[in-house]
Design goal:
This protein folds into two domains: 110 residues, no CATH class; 111 residues, no CATH class. It has eleven helices and six strands.
């Protein structure tokens, strides 16, 4: 009897969990528009949900320059067919977003529907990533976050990848080749947040090689600091040309902070 009660309780909990998960993955709806960009291989893509009027809350908006290749069922030629109905689709592992509307004055305007993919959530769960909702999956879809890319980052030694910082990794192009290029220079197994900071501040392998050639061995934090305060290889060379050949990284940073080189 106790076994049957325990089994029934387990099934009820599992059922509630599935219902909760389904409740978190409801389709999203709103308005959308697609217009030409200044770059021929991209378009201006805008999504809007909720009341975005002045002083209003609960507004979600995406307004970005997006590669034309992200869409299926849509080409730039469609924007020249005034009054034509067009369905522009972005299909990714995390879900499918469809912008359906009518073309007017070189702009497709209409409504969008985003349908999250529960299979993607299940796959990510097996990889140790949880806490998804439809809004997050919509962002994953827009930035084409794929499980293979995440696995490649993990295989490259990136630690500290979370459901929340995956988008930042994608936006700032922390990809396996970049991770490997930094690892080859001695910066291996860095956490995701550190690599994001590298990309934000422009830390690159070429500069590191030049620092090394000038006798400097900056650690990860010093690399970020040097980029923030513009302690570039050219700046160091200018200091050396003035006879300041034994300056430490901290001294170089201080010169920049207090504008002593001016």
């Amino acid at each position: 009897m106790k076994t049957r009660v325990l089994l029934l309780s387990t099934l009820l909990v599992a059922g509630c969990s599935l219902l909760y998960a389904d409740d978190q993955l409801q389709p999203l709806h709103g308005t959308c528009s697609i217009a030409p960009s200044t770059e021929g291989d991209r378009v201006q893509f805008k999504l809007e949900r909720g009341d975005c009027g002045e002083g209003k809350h609960h507004c979600n908006m995406n307004d970005s320059d997006m590669p034309l290749s992200n869409f299926s069922g849509f080409t730039l030629a469609d924007l020249k067919n005034d009054a034509a109905h067009v369905d522009a689709v972005i299909a990714a592992e995390a879900g499918k977003l469809t912008c359906s509307g009518t073309v007017h004055d070189l702009t497709l305007s209409g409504d969008f529907t985003f349908v999250p993919d529960a299979a993607f959530v299940a796959h990510m769960g097996k990889m140790g990533f949880t806490g998804f909702d439809s809004e997050k999956l919509e962002a994953y879809t827009l930035f084409h976050v794929e499980t293979s890319w995440i696995q490649a980052l993990q295989s490259a030694g990136v630690s500290g990848i979370t459901t929340d910082n995956i988008i930042a990794l994608r936006i700032f192009k922390v990809d396996p080749p970049y991770v490997k290029s930094m690892a080859d220079l001695g910066y291996a197994n860095l956490p995701a947040e550190k690599l994001i900071a590298f990309r934000i501040h422009g830390v690159n392998p070429d500069d590191v090689k030049q620092y090394r050639a000038m006798g400097y061995q900056p650690n990860a934090d010093e690399l970020i600091q040097m980029r923030i305060f513009k302690v570039t290889p050219d700046f160091i060379k200018r200091m050396q040309a003035r006879g300041l050949n034994d300056l430490t990284i901290q001294k170089l940073v201080q010169i920049r902070i207090f504008k002593l080189a001016d």
